[in-house]
Amino acid sequence: MSVHELVIAGLNDHRLFTRLDLAGTFAFAIGGAVAARDRGLDRFGAVP
Questions:
Q1: 3-state secondary structure of 42
Q2: pLDDT for 20-42, tens place per residue?
């Protein structure tokens, strides 16, 4: 493999991990919003 091919492979791996990270963050946010709604909390999670 040439250096150029290794750099492109690294960028593709970086994009994959970035997308997985964003998907995990989104899922965590949705889960937290659902839990807050079930407990009757406001947007900041302070007032029951």
A1: coil
A2: 899 999 999 999 989 988 888 87
With a CB cutoff of 8 Å and minimum separation 6, the contacts of 1 are 9
What is the CB neighbour count within 10 angstroms for residue 41?
Answer: 15
Q: Which amino acid is at 36?
A: A
Per-domain residue ranges of the chain:
1-43
* Residues sharing a CB contact under 8 Å with residue 40, sequence separation 6 or more, in sequence order: 48
Contacts of 36 (CB under 8 A, 6+ apart): 45
Q: What is the pTM of this model?
A: 0.61
Q: What is the DSSP letter of 39?
A: H
Q: Which long-range contacts (CB under 8 A, 24 or more apart) does 1-5 make?
A: none
